[in-house]
Amino acid sequence: MSHFSTVRTEIKNRDHLVSALKQMNYSVKTGNYQCRGYQGNTQSVELLIENAGSGYDLGFRNNNGNYELVADWYGIKGVNSDQLINNIQSEITKIENKIKQEYAYNTVKEKLLDQGFEIDDELREDGEIRIKLSRIV
Amino acid sequence: MENQKIEVKIDQTGKVSFDIDGVRGKKCDKITEQVIKALGILENKKLKPEYNDDDKEEDNILTHNT
Questions:
Q1: Which pLDDT band, with edges at 50, 70 and 90, does B52 fall under?
Q2: Residue A82, class by beta-carbon neighbours within 10 Å (0-12 exposed, 13-18 middle, 19+ buried)?
Q3: What is the ipTM of this complex?
């Protein structure tokens, strides 16, 4: 008898999901793996966290664009799937914001330097980036 | 000759704001135009009191999606 169940998430970007899991100190294997559950039952997954609880694994696989969390929840003790997904989502938001911020930083610099502006000062503080530029025309 | 100064702030979510000084008329739009095109939506535009003079200055705040 299988105790596996899947929990659908809103996560679509595999790289961001892997980064978030690593940020949360999970050791993640990427590729085609079997997620282990009760009495040797397995499910195919694309991302695997081995021994997530009681010798059972956690996995993720893509289902029509969204990643779903796969595990034998009967066997894994002490892991709350809703809490886990919320924590992952929160890490992904941080990662995506960081990417947006760096993209904005590079774009602003490129577009303003192209117009002859020079950087007078640059400061990164409390998560915010401030750039002072000037030109004489 | 104009001494044009820009202070750019990029917050933790990637939202960008400009504070532009020393730029006359609509030239400030030209300066930010390329950045806005590359990053996305102009969310808010606040004009300084000098807007009605020949010397116009402005703040722009924009958000974008990567």
A1: low
A2: exposed
A3: 0.76
